[in-house]
Every structure is written in structure tokens, then in C-alpha cells.
Amino acid sequence: MSSRPRDRWRPLFWRVLAFAAVYAMAVVALAMGVGLSERDLTDSGIFERAYYALGLFVLGGLDIGTPDGGPAAARMMLWSAYFLAPLITVSALVEAAVRLIDPTALRVRGLSDHVVLGGAGRLTLLYVRKLRETDPRRTIVVVERESNHPLLAELRTVHRVLVVAGDVASDQVLEGLRLDKAHRVLLITGDDFANLDAAAKILRLAPNLRNRIVVHVSDLRLMRETAGSSVARECEVFNAHGFAASHLVREHLLKRFHSTPERDLVVLAGFGRFGQTVLHELQQRALGSFGKVVIIDELGTQKARAFAEEPGFRTDYDRVVLDGDLRDPELWRRTSEEVRSNGTNPVVILGSGDDGTNLHAALRVSKHHPGAYIIVRTFRASPFTTEVAEEVGAHAVNLRALIRNGMPASWF
Known about the structure:
Layout: H1 4-31, E1 35-36, H2 46-55, E2 67-68, H3 72-101, H4 103-108, E3 115-118, H5 122-134, E4 140-144, H6 152-157, E5 162-165, H7 171-175, E6 184-187, H8 192-205, E7 213-216, H9 220-225, H10 230-234, E8 236-238, H11 240-259, E9 264-269, H12 273-285, E10 290-297, H13 300-309, E11 319-323, H14 329-342, E12 347-350, H15 355-368, E13 373-378, H16 383-391, E14 395-398, H17 399-406
């Protein structure tokens, strides 16, 4: 059983304990014969002395004067209570005020059937835009720890999102989001571990959200290694590049492979998360339809070594890894040698993280390999890239549209 509920009440426990100790000090001191300069306690009973002791905790205090007479030790106890009692009262009032003005408490108090999103990145913006089209009245709460995040302005003003400052993996933040009343939670920060960690905590805090928690994991290896966890079983774990790669393979590459009698040579220019996901999808959906794979990347060998461990290369095709900058002519000369040795027009997927580099490479490939099937990846729709790509017979695809189209209808 989680110890979180006990942690939540611990400050109150210590405050009550401090109150009891100070109050007892004041009552005992008065009972031992300490008097009050403004009150005659000669004939006072225990209840009257207890009343005056309680008055020490009232800000402004009762008009009882100061400790007078009695044993020195008892008088010292009462003086201590005079100073400590108001401090306890003030600390309680300060904490109450902080709780009242806490942004999380104010913004989500009373909410129900709301959607909670962790992170204010590009995935969040894609999801919010689509959700507003299908469900314009749904209350959306976005948790973001960077108060100056560049996308917060659009989320607040255009899409009427409630923004809560904080870490979505923080226990304190999660406890203030009324998760037991939420409709759905999407954890789509740029930190895979934070997403998985927050999901595990939410499952304990709000078990009713099982199968209504969406978790983004960008690292394919981590995604596969955690496939047996409770988060993977009780949440929907996804990879945004997986959405894009699945659509790309299904709508572009399979059609190309089926239209050519030979097994196509595939060039993956850029072997980051997008390139790796495309190859993984090709292995899942098109094995036997393509031949050699040429991987070119500045850290190609290193990334290929990691891919070999998880999810792993299949043995049904040959592969060549070339290390180098995609803007380096020498790298493309070596790539051209591989293409010519294969004797077929290649399928070239330009998927580095730099849109300008991809377009520049498309122009180079179209010049040296006019029959190549070229795909140019951009993050967002780019009229310029589309125009230039069409002029050289390439196909421009934007990652944002691929991801948006891949989001399941059940999320909305």
C-alpha cells in the first residue's frame, strides 16, 4: 500500500502536536501558580486557566497581561508559550493562504470529465487542435514545468487551455489535478521516463483511469523493454514516429514496392528516431519487398549498433552503414556507388531532423539518380518544400500531418 496519504497529512500532524505541547505548557504553568498581570487567578479554576491558555493562540491575544509571579521554571514555560503560540497560529494561516492561492487548486477545483495533458510540446499542440475540432467544449488542463514555453501562449489564448505550472511526474501536482474525475490523461512530454513514471503514479492515484491513459515513448528500445510493465498493460503506450512511419510505409512505400518487379534498394538518409522507426515498420510490413538497405548518418554506425540490439535487424536483406554529414558530397558519392552496384533505381527516404538538409539532399539525389523514388520529410507543411519537391519528382511528407492522422479516434 502506498504511503502517500500519510505523507499528505504529516504537516498537519506536526502542527497539531506543536499546538498540544505549547497549550499544555501554558496550562501547566498557570496551574503551578504563575499569575497574569491583568487577571486575578486567585480563585480561578482549571477551566478558566485553560481558557486563558487557549487565548494565547488568538492573534491580537486576550487582554490578560504578562506572566507574573510563581516558580521561575513555570514562569519561563509560560513566557515560551507566549512567543510560540502566535507562531503556530501564523504558520497555519500562511499555509492555508498558500493553499487557497495555489494555481493548481484554483484552476482545477470543481473540474470533472476533463482531459489532462503532460507537457506543452508540439505533440500536445497537435492533439489539442484536433480535440478542439471534435470536442470544442471539453476542459483541457496542460501541465508544463517551463513557465515561458513558447507554445503556452497559443494553448491559452487560442485553445482556452488551463495551464498548470509544475512537473507532471510530481506527486503534489498529480494530487491536485482531480484525476479521479478526469476523462483521459495524455503524458506526452519530451522525457520518456517522466511519462512512464507519471503513468505508474496515476494508476495508483486513480485506478479508474486504466486504459484511458496515453503514454508517449520516443525511444523504441525503451518502449520494447518496458512492454511487460503494468504501465504497458494498463495504458496505451505509443511512439509518434511510429504513427508517421506506419502511414508512410502503408501509403507510399508499399505502393512503390508493389509497382516494381525487382526488390528495391532503400536509402535511409538520417537514422535517428524517425529513420529507425521507418526501418522497423518496413521489417514488420514489407519484408521481402526490398533488397539492400543503405543507412547514412553522421553517427550511423553507433545508431545501427543500438538498433541491432533492439528492435534488431532482420537477416532477409543486406545492409550498408555509411557515416558522414548529409551535406558532404563524399558521403553521397559513396552512396551512389552502392546504388550503381545494385543496378536499380533506389527508394531514398530523407528523414534527418533538419528540413533544409533533407531538401538539399533531395535536389542532389534527383540530379544524380533521376529515376529514384524520393521522399522528403519535413516537420510541418512547407509550401516551398512541396513546390521544389514536385519540380524534381520527389514526394514531400510532413511529420505533423502523419502523426495527427495516426492518432486514434478513441483519443477524442
